Structure formats: structure tokens, C-alpha cells
Amino acid sequence: MLEKQTAPPEIAEGEVLETLSIPATAIGGVIGKGGSNISLLQDEHGATVDIPRGTTICYIYGAPSSVEQTKEAIQAIIDRFNKLDAAKATAAAGGLLPDDAGNEVLVDPTAGWGTEADMSESSGAAAADAGSWGCGDLAQSQGW
């Protein structure tokens, strides 16, 4: 997929700008339904989040501490999606996944997972914990 070329936003004196590249599989989770997760991140941390339409580039700008907090929150969302993707790939290959006790168990790829909720629980990306980083709308819309 080709990235659209976008210029970073102009920032005011005293502000900082951070740029993140978001994996395509996590972009919807960062944005949220109708931009709800971006709004939540902005309200919660005070920095501005801008993801130009059709890209996976994320600009975060504002006061240095706000930008750092927002960047950490977005990275946590990305990490959850990466973990979920890895668990799906491992399960599809019949590999080992940790159970709730931390023991590795063999996954039978022919057994299927059933639902996204089953997958989320098994991967440790539980929906209850998703809301704290702005994933709540995504988790709810996906039935996690």
C-alpha cells in the first residue's frame, strides 16, 4: 500500500511534534468508531492527534508531557493489536500460546476459536482492559 504524502502540521512555539507509523491492522483501533478513540485520547491527555485520511501516519503534537502520554497510550493500543495478530497467527499454525496461568499450551488449528472474544481472552487483550487506552469503542463494536 502506498502512503499518501502528507506534510506534518505546523506547531506553536513550545509545542513538540511526534510522528508514529501505525500498522494497518491497528489503525481502526487507534481511530475508533467515528474518531471516538482519537477524541478520547485528546481529551484524556491534552495533545492533538492527527491521522491524515488514507494513511497510517499519526502526528501527535502539543505540550511535551501531553505528547509523551498520548504517544504511550497509542503505543499501548498498537501493542494490543500486534499481540492479537500474533496470537491469531500462532493459533492458525497450531503453535503454542500462554494460558491464563502463563503455561504454554498447544493450539489445535482445526478446533477454531469461535469468536473474537475468545481470541482476545486467550491473547491477554481483554476487553475490560481495552477501554482504559481508548479501545473501548472498538472492543464493544467487535463484541470483545
Percent helix range: 40-55%
**Which whole number gives the mean pLDDT?**
76
What distance lies between the first and last C-alpha atoms, to the nearest angstrom?
28 Å
Say how many strands there are.
5
Trace the largest sheet across and list its strands.
Answer: 1-3-2
Count of discrete structural domains: 1
Give the overall shape: elongated
CATH-defined superfamily: K Homology domain, type 1
The level-1 CATH class: Alpha Beta
The CATH architecture: 2-Layer Sandwich
CATH topology call: Ribosomal Protein S8, Chain: A, domain 1
What ranges have pLDDT less than 50 throughout 5 or more consecutive residues? 113-136
- The SSE order reads EHHEEHEEHHH
Tell me the structural class: alpha+beta
Largest sheet: 3 strands, antiparallel
Helix count from the secondary structure assignment:
6
Q: Supply Rg.
A: 17 Å
Keywords summarizing the entry:
144 residues, alpha+beta, Ribosomal Protein S8, Chain: A, domain 1, 3-stranded antiparallel β-sheet, two-stranded antiparallel ribbon, 6 helices
